[in-house]
Specification:
Elements lengths: L1 H19 L6 H27 L13 H21 L1 H16 L6 H25 L11
């Protein structure tokens, strides 16, 4: 639980730094960042209190057996970032989210499970694209394939 306590203190300190960065913003510009900062402060305070109350419940959060999955996931995310402007938001999102899910899944992947994963991620990424690109007019990376 020492890691939880340290993480909560780090997030509390980072929230103070982030809060000071919102002073120069206009009223409409600082409402959302400050709301997110307040949420981070509340969650960090809750984590700190929880780590103080549960003293006998020690567990290892980062097991050595998980290191290969973490390293592969980091490599896949780095490749995703690289290919984002080449393949586009939708295509790269579906491909790399599906790959990450299949790799991290503990069961043996079969064709039906992989097709379900691809279908769910396609719907999710398209929903994000419609929401941000078409409705909110947020520019998303557009590669050669969308």
């Amino acid at each position: 639980m020492k890691a939880d306590r340290a993480a909560s203190v780090v997030f509390l300190l980072a929230s103070v730094v982030f809060w000071t960065q919102t002073y120069g913003l206009q009223y409409n510009g600082f409402v959302f960042p400050r709301a997110v900062i307040v949420l981070i402060i509340l969650l960090s305070a809750g984590l700190f209190v929880q780590s103080m109350v549960r003293k006998g419940d020690e567990q290892k959060a980062f097991l050595p057996a998980n290191i290969p999955y973490v390293l592969v996931s980091i490599a896949i995310v780095a490749l995703w970032i690289y290919f984002l402007n080449i393949l586009g938001f939708i295509v790269s999102g579906v491909i790399f989210l599906s790959i990450l899910t299949v790799i991290i899944d503990l069961g043996k992947p079969n064709l039906t499970a992989v097709l379900k994963v691809v279908a769910v991620h396609t719907a999710l990424v398209v929903a994000f694209w419609v929401t941000f690109h078409l409705i909110l007019l947020v520019p998303l990376p557009e590669g050669y394939l969308i």
